[in-house]
Amino acid sequence: MTSIYDFDAVKPNGDEVSLSEFRGEAMVIVNTASKCGFTPQFEELQSLYEEFKDKGFTVLGFPSDQFMNQEFGNNDDIMEFCKVNYGVSFPMFSKVDVKGKGAHPLFKYLIKEKKGLMTSEVKWNFTKFLVDREGNVVNRYAPQTSPKKIKEDLVKIL
């Protein structure tokens, strides 16, 4: 795989989606969790999405339960939680592993493209990757980085 557009992901309803459907859009790809201290970032991610979706931007959320069991057991509970508590309307996908041997190929690619501090692996929930309109991974943000702080970088690539 040599491009972000070569990957597929599964929606919560089981439908497989090619990331090529997002070709030409800037993206923030983020691993999420419903019961994490960073969970309120859903609100800021949704705000970014609403502000820039008409300018060719989207957020892609990938729930993961690899960090202290901070995610619900099934996709329906995850989606309901996100919608009811944070009004999430950006694309969310089925729960995946984001690190280790079983990591989703997309996340293996993302960490290869943008290594983190000390290790390339995703260290915690809400690690964020900014992807430009050509599908290049241009930046990686730590879990504690507020999505509001991504806005300046996002505007540059829009």
TrEMBL record:
Pfam families: GSHPx. InterPro entries: Glutathione_peroxidase, Thioredoxin-like_sf, Thioredoxin_domain. One of its GO terms (molecular function) is peroxidase activity. Residues 1-158 form the Thioredoxin domain. The keyword Oxidoreductase applies. The active site is at C36. This is Glutathione peroxidase. It comes from Rossellomorea vietnamensis.
